[in-house]
Design brief:
Blueprint: E1 3-4, E2 14-21, H1 24-34, H2 38-41, H3 43-47, H4 58-69, E3 75-76, E4 78-88, E5 98-110, E6 117-127, E7 133-144
Parallel strand pairs: 1-3
Antiparallel strand pairs: 2-5, 4-7, 5-6, 6-7
């Protein structure tokens, strides 16, 4: 994979990664282990929930986002994630969905305390096969400058 250094990242640029196929077995395994609410972990109980069926946990969808982000080409020469400014879950993820990640660079600045690194803000949108957003977030990343790592 090609690393994209701070100097190479352009505000307004976009990239995509995907697809990721969500399976019922994966939704159940993740739900039962990490978020055991009935609509994540029990297909029968999920059918009578507000969702009308089994749905993936938001934590699960975030993990899928991380997996997809690691497959961006090129991808930022990441030092570390610095946090999220916002995260929304406008539509549920269901077994059988195929998810893709769309990323847009919002802004960037060189670090004042570590001039060999830069801070980049990126809007991440995960969409399903119908183009509906299922997760949106703004992530802050620390990225290597060219020649630093």
């Amino acid at each position: 994979m090609t690393d994209l250094y701070f100097e190479d990242i352009e505000v307004g640029s976009t990239s995509r990664a995907g697809e990721y196929a969500v399976t019922e077995a994966e939704v159940l395994e993740f739900g039962r282990r990490f978020d055991p609410r009935p609509f994540h972990s029990d297909p029968l109980a999920a059918a009578s929930s507000a969702f009308g069926g089994l749905v993936a946990s938001g934590c699960h969808v975030f993990c899928i986002r991380s997996w997809l982000a690691s497959r961006l080409e090129p991808r930022p020469a990441l030092v570390a994630g610095l946090g999220l400014e916002s995260m929304d879950l406008p539509n549920p993820v269901r077994p059988g969905d195929r998810l893709s990640l769309h990323v847009e660079v919002l802004d960037k600045r060189r670090s004042t305390s570590r001039p060999d690194r830069g801070i980049v803000r990126m809007r991440n949108t995960i969409v399903n096969q119908g183009g509906e957003p299922v997760m949106t977030l703004v992530a802050k990343l620390m990225v290597h400058c060219r020649g630093s790592g």
